[in-house]
Specification:
By secondary structure, the chain is α/β, with parallel strands linked by helices. The chain is 49% helix and 15% strand. Strand 6 (129-134), helix 5 and strand 7 (172-179) form a beta-alpha-beta unit.
Length: 283
């Protein structure tokens, strides 16, 4: 198999770092983005020549375009884009301020959108390529206590599903990766809590979610292994028939199945009422 060029945002730790290391270990080139100068040399030294660090803040859209152009100039192509940069935000929806919500959407939605738009012209020119959007089971299943994070991932999933249909005829594939809880810094250093705390939510499902996720950050007891997740993502890229959604981990798969079944039952219960709203055919 020919050597691939991967462009992976957010490789300082977690799923991004595990994927970059696995990509380099198989002989591909993992161009990884980091926000801090001090991180660049460390990343590039992981597998010299195959891990290549570039400085990028996905919220700086001019920088996004410049960095993508730089990568194309250096390597001639991008075969796989992985939009991994982002962070989590906890808080009942009422607790999250406008500023906190906008910041979450700016990084998780508009940052990923900017990188995708910057890379797509090159994938179209190549008539090939694969985009992995690192979403979350929270991009398919709303979670009390993480509603604005859910909103960011639902938005990512919406535009990515559309792009998958828009670009399939052009030879481009798209996969939404939906992990459950994995042993990364997402529940620790990469997690933010809404500044406002409303005591009424403490004993509700929102409070339980916040306690569970912050507990993961303290104990590292998440069931998911990021190195195994990296292997699953590589299998999806290697597949001749990659999935639109790659759900990772037993907890995520269980939540996915439960929502599908609940939606099926709800649709069946209300289908007749919904169908009755169609106007009679025009004569």
């Amino acid at each position: 198999m020919a050597q691939r060029i991967w462009f992976i945002t957010g490789v300082s730790s977690g799923l991004g770092r595990s994927l970059a290391e696995a990509v380099a270990a198989r002989g591909d080139i993992a161009v990884g983005t980091l926000r801090q100068d001090a991180q660049l040399a460390v990343y590039s030294a992981l597998a010299p020549g195959r891990t290549v660090g570039v400085k990028l803040d996905v919220n700086d859209h001019a920088q996004v375009n410049a960095v993508v152009s730089q990568v194309i100039k250096q390597f001639g192509r991008i075969d796989v884009l992985v939009n991994n940069a982002g962070y989590g935000l906890l808080g009942a929806v009422e607790e999250v301020s406008d500023a906190e919500a906008r910041a979450q959407l700016e990084t998780n939605v508009f940052g990923a959108l900017a990188v995708t738009r910057a890379v797509l012209p090159h994938l179209r020119r190549q008539k090939s390529g694969h985009i992995l959007q690192i979403s979350s089971i929270g991009g398919f299943n709303g979670t009390p206590g993480a509603g604005i994070y859910n909103a960011s991932k639902f938005a990512l999933e919406g535009f990515s599903e559309a792009i998958a249909k828009e670009t399939a005829p052009l030879g481009i594939r798209v996969t939404l990766v939906e992990p459950g809880p994995f042993r990364t810094k997402w529940a620790g250093e990469s997690l933010k809590r809404a500044a406002a705390v409303i005591p009424d939510y403490a004993a509700t499902p929102a409070g339980a979610t916040i306690a569970r996720i912050t507990g993961y950050g303290a104990t590292g007891s998440q069931p998911g292994d990021p190195d195994l997740a990296a292997g699953a993502m590589i299998k999806a890229v290697d597949s001749p028939n990659p999935p639109l959604r790659l759900v990772l981990g037993a907890l995520a798969i269980g939540a996915f199945r439960a929502k599908l079944e609940a939606a099926r039952q709800e649709l069946a219960a209300w289908e007749a009422i919904g169908l009755a709203t169609d106007a009679p055919p025009k004569s």
